[in-house]
Amino acid sequence: MNTNLAAELTAIVTDKNDKQLFVQKNGLTYKVLSEVDAEIGDVLNGFAYTDKNDQLVFITDIPDIRPNHYGWGEVVKVNHRLGVFVDVNWPDKDIVLSMDDLPAEGRLWPKEGNKVFVTISVDKKDRIWAKPADEEQFFQDFVEGTKDMHNSDFTGVTFSLKKSGTYALTEDKHILFIHPSEREKEPRLGETISARVIGLREDGVLYASMKPRAHEVMEEDSLMLLEVLKRSENHKIPYHNKTNPEDIKLQFGISKGQFKRAVGRLMKQGWVSQDETGTFLIKNPEDEEK
After folding, report:
1. Can you give the pLDDT at residue 214?
2. In sequence order, what are the beta bridge partners of 9?
3. DSSP string across the chain
4. Stretch 152-168: mean pLDDT, rounded?
5. Mean pLDDT over residues 220-240, rounded?
6. Nearest-angstrom CA–CA distance, 106 and 39
7. For labelling, which of 1, 130, 203, 248 has a CA lying 20 to 30 Å from the CA of 179?
8. Which burial class, exposed, middle or buried, applies to 233 when counting CB atoms under 10 A from its CB (0-12, 13-18, 19+)?
9. pLDDT, tens digit (0-9, with 9 covering 90-100), for 84-142
10. Which is nearest to 198 in space by CA: 231, 176, 222?
């Protein structure tokens, strides 16, 4: 076992030609990938690993993601028999995040372009693996949410998929929790999601929903009527189900059937009511979401 793999080390320059520099440590020779001005006999400090061709290589810049140091890597390839390959910013090397450390269901694996928060480990066969951070790693320095964040929109990267719900981390290090009832489908590990805050947990985690706001899923005619009611005097319009179809067409540009369906959707939401004098707003959906 090579104890110097994925590790910082000091090595001696033992060979040099016009194109390449080589260093040696404990009898093993490493190709230097970094551009460095050195002569035979010089001592270099750096980081050693095996490249994509399993050749020993050496770089002088210590990578951020290394054993016991975590960072965000980007998935660049998926192999369903092995796991996912992650770009951790090591030259000529992508690191495998094993299927053993991924969700049991392949549909929940990260795909190309998704991000995973990982560290590095080396097994007894000198194989270098990416290892995902556990939940404690995220909760150590997350930023607690506040009540005034209610109804705010956030984006975050999912880092934990549980039966109870999905956890995601925002750029500002807030943690979002999405209950299964607050999403249309379960997001993948490492997927960037958009959600709005619907509550605050005692520990500062933000309860969030991936479902659209009610008024965002309304059809165009309903939204148009809703805007008209919000802008009208006393939030009322003198149009109802008994109104002449031509008057409705002239005023709103829609048929009487479209008008009735649009009003029906708004009434189902509890936002409008109607009598023989017209249609009126009884609850503003924007106030409901505050």
Report:
1. 60
2. 46
3. --TTTTEEEEEEEEEE-SS-EEEEETTEEEEE-S-----TT-EEEEEEEE-TTS-EEEESSPPSSBTTB-EEEEEEEEETTTEEEEEEEETTEEEEEEGGGS-SSGGGS--TT-EEEEEEEE-TT--EEEEEPPHHHHHSSPPPP-GGGTT-EEEEEEEEEETTEEEEEETT--EEEE-GGG-SSPPPTT-EEEEEEEEE-TTSPEEEE-SPPGGGSS-HHHHHHHHHHHHSGGGEES--TTS-HHHHHHHHSS-HHHHHHHHHHHHHTTSEEEETTEEEES--HHHHT-
4. 96
5. 90
6. 50
7. 130
8. exposed
9. 999 999 999 999 999 999 999 999 999 999 999 999 999 999 999 999 999 999 999 99
10. 176
Cβ atoms < 10 Å from Cβ of 157: 22
* Placement of tokens 């936002």 in the chain: 271
Mean pLDDT across the chain: 93
pLDDT band at 285 (very low <50, low <70, confident <90, very high): confident
Q: Closest Cα to residue 54, out of 99, 86, 92? A: 92
Structural domains of the chain ordered from first start: 7-59 (2.40.50.330), 71-133 (2.40.50.140), 142-209 (2.40.50.140), 216-288 (1.10.10.10)
pTM of the entire structure?
A: 0.75
Beta-bridge partner residues of 31: 22, 57
The residue behind tokens 């050195």 is 38
- Does residue 83 carry a pLDDT above 90? yes
288: which 2 tokens?
A: 């409901």
Backbone CA torsion sign across 69, 207, 158, 191 = negative
> What end-to-end distance do the CA atoms of the chain give, in Å?
60
Q: What is the model's pLDDT at position 1?
A: 82
Q: How far apart are CA 275 and CA 90, in angstroms?
A: 70
Report residue 146 as tokens.
């506040």
